[in-house]
Each structure stands twice: as structure tokens, then as C-alpha cells.
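So, is this right?
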Amino acid sequence: MTATGPGVPPAPPAVSRSVLSGGGGPVRFTVAGVLGMIRQGILPEDARTELLDGILVHKDRSEQGGDPMALGPRHRKGVRRLAALSARIDSPERHAQSQLPIVCGEGEMPEPDFAIIRGTDDDYDDTLPTAADALGVVEVSDASLERDRDEKGPAYAAAGIGWYLIVNLRTDTLELYTDPDRSGRRYLASEVLRTGDFVRFPLGGGAVLELSVDTVLP
């Protein structure tokens, strides 16, 4: 998570390190609180955590049934395949980012594996992208599949992000969710794409990037 300037809420008063333990149960945080802890050195800037529904959770990038602290090789390859698309996406109108935060609400700052953001990278020198800046997001899912569907999906829909793609490593399929219902915290349309199918990434302004599913699956 990266702490930056004017577009981000001001840091709160100093926070004790003990607050992270949540001795009596889950401790709820705001985006401003988390960014404040990063500024104060309480939370490492490269921490393997993200803020979901006010709770700092571990970013699980492992294989199903594997060590939750380990990075699964297929997850790594999937993220790299997505990152390689940047050359076909980046323009003065949009750019791709990988495993970086998007502010989706007061207590929501997920770090999707891949996202397409409006504008150029230079537009965010002093602020973090918000959900309004995100055209779409992608998660590469194995051990994290239930969280990506049941927690991140509703968060992305409630924030109004236009489309959400899950790269499902368990079934070697892509799950595409579109038409967000913000008040209902869900996407109204979904489809499952398999080997031989094509997935379309809306890029804004009528532009679309169409790829074979095989291009995305690791």
C-alpha cells in the first residue's frame, strides 16, 4: 500500500502498534487510518495485507491447500501474463496497474492483481486511484477464490467498478462479472469463459481489448 498526498484523507493521530493485534477481536480501520499507519512506520509499505470491509487481511496468493504464506507458481504466472498486457492497454486515456491499491470506500482499499485505470500513471503522483478511476479489475484466484467471489466481488460492485474478472485457477476458467448494482452490492450479469472462448476488456470510450482465454490463463 502506498501513502500519497492531497487526494488521500489526512493521517489520524498516532496509533499504537498494539492496535494491529486486535486482542479482543477484529479491529476495524479506515483508509485514512491505514495510510496514517504506513506514514508512521507502524504498517510496512510493502505489507502483504489489504483493507477489506474495514479489516486488514492477508493477501492469499497460494495454491488451494498449500501454505497460505507462499506465492503459488500459477498465481505468479497468471499475474505476469496480465501485466504483459500493459503494452496493449497503456495510452493517454488509460493505463494498467498490478497489485496496487484502489480506494473503494471509507474502509475498502483492495489491491487487485490487475486493474485498468483511467488516465496516465502521472495523473496519480499525488493521490491514489479510486473506484471511479477504475474501468475494471482482475483477480487471479486459487486459495483466495471464495474471498474473491464473496467479499471482493460485492465490494467492487458497491464501488461501481464496471467489470470484474476472476481468473479461476481451480477450473481453468474466467468468470466475468458486469453491470454493477451498487445498492445491491452485486453484479447483475456474469458468464464463465473457457479455453477456446474470447474475453473482452472494455477500455472506455468504446475501445475494447479482445483476447483468447488461453492468453490469460497461466
Summary: The helical segments are 31-40, 73-83, 86-89, 145-158, 213-216. Confidence is low (pLDDT under 50) at residues 1-22. The radius of gyration is 17 Å. The chain has two domains: 17-58, 73-216.
